[in-house]
Amino acid sequence: MTQGPVISTIHCMADVWDAYRPELDGVEDRVRKNLDSSVALVNTVAAHILSGGGKRIRPLLLQLSARLCGYSGKDHHQLGSLVEFIHTATLLHDDVVDDADIRRGRKTARKVWGNQISILVGDYLYTKAMCQVVEFRSQGINEVLAEACKKMAEGEVLQLYYNGNPAMPEIDYIKIVEHKTAGLIAAACRMGAILADASETQQEALFRFGQYLGIAFQVADDTLDYTANGEFLGKTIGQDLRQGKATLPLLHLLQHCSEQDRLMIKDRMETRTLSTADLERILSLMTDFGSIMYAMDRARTYIAAAKHELEIFEDSTARRALTVAADYMITRDR
């Protein structure tokens, strides 16, 4: 993608955020009000990560999906805040699993308060969300959110199973991404449709839209780990490889590089001994074999599939905003 379309997409996404800022402010208000544990430390730790600069893309997609299907109420504020609680819980747990010290340019909760507190506060946020979602008295919403949580746990286990293993099949990489990242995004989109009493056809289309969007988002994010401004991302470039994670650009490279380079990469993943020189070598190889381009092309294919799911809906402000959000998923590093 050339720089012109990238800048245009980001400007358009800024317009979407501006247009829906009052709606997102409603979500933020519910997030604050829902942090009401009688144990002050729970609220402090949760607020640390909830105020860490997240863009609330999942609540935004939920409300856009609801508006697309004709919803005019305000319940999406509360539901969006619960989705954000669940997302935040996964971040707290992921940082413990990954031994992460930095997230969004700030110290992780585990770095400030320790692993035990981070895990328990993540558990609290999961439980808080599931306790409050039943107040909607919607079996559909309950089932969608519960299934998303189950998939996220399965995805995390599968990723740990393959940690340090460069022989992971690409199909299993996509399965991990679909479960860990796309599951909650797809659930948010479908729950927006459920709020609007949309037809099953519309619900399924928005679920698939979110699923494709989530896969593209994670593939692009994994690719940024090798290409983007580390200071901007708030993490170290090459961090996934240092943690033994084989993501799509690396899987492509391993299919095309020499046996000598393949063995070097395998050794660094298994021993966690990646040096700056090793990383520079790997980045050079990715350029030579088109691994970054391959991964981003795959991400763009998923974005195209996501947009296709919107074609059953009439043109509207919400549909156009969802299209902009889709494009933004793979241009947000600029």
What is the architecture at the second tier of CATH? Orthogonal Bundle
- Please identify the structural class as seen in this structure: mainly alpha
SSE order: HHHHHEEHHHHHHHHHHHH
Rounded radius of gyration (Å): 20 Å
CATH superfamily: Farnesyl Diphosphate Synthase
**Total of DSSP H or I helical runs spanning 4+ residues:** 17
Percent of residues in helical segments?
Answer: over 70%
**The CATH class:** Mainly Alpha
Please give the number of β-strands.
Answer: 2
Shape: globular
User: β content, as a range?
Assistant: under 5%
Structure description:
With 334 residues, this protein is mainly alpha-helical. It has one domain: Farnesyl Diphosphate Synthase. Helix content is 75%, strand content 1%. It has 17 helices and two strands. It has a two-stranded antiparallel ribbon with strand order 1-2. Strand 1 and strand 2 form a beta hairpin. Helix 9 crosses helix 10. The longest helix has 28 residues. The chain is globular and about 60 Å long. About 1% of the residues have low confidence.
Summary, kept brief:
The chain contains 17 helices and 2 strands.
Indicate the topology.
Blueprint: H1 3-19, H2 21-34, H3 40-50, H4 57-68, H5 75-97, E1 102-103, E2 106-107, H6 109-113, H7 115-133, H8 139-162, H9 170-195, H10 200-227, H11 230-233, H12 239-242, H13 248-254, H14 259-271, H15 276-289, H16 291-309, H17 317-328
Antiparallel strand pairs: 1-2
Helix pairs in contact: 1-17, 2-5, 4-5, 4-9, 4-17, 5-7, 5-8, 5-9, 8-9, 9-10, 10-16, 13-16, 16-17
